[in-house]
Amino acid sequence: MLRKPVQELIKKGRDQGFLTQEEIMEAFPDA
After folding, report:
1. Is-above-0.70 flag for pTM?
2. Which structural domain, as residue segments, surrounds residue 8?
3. Of 15, 1, 3, which is closest to residue 26 (Cα–Cα)?
4. Number of domains in the chain
5. In this structure, how many other beta carbons lie within 10 angstroms of the beta carbon of residue 27?
6. 27 and 5 in contact (C-beta within 8 Å)?
7. What per-residue confidence (pLDDT) applies to 1?
């Protein structure tokens, strides 16, 4: 099961058609 920030990131990515590095880092703080 994906964590909520990750689910939101995927949804946002689909809506925008892209994701910024910053958004990805927020969803994966341990990355």
Report:
1. no
2. 1-31
3. 3
4. 1
5. 20
6. yes
7. 75
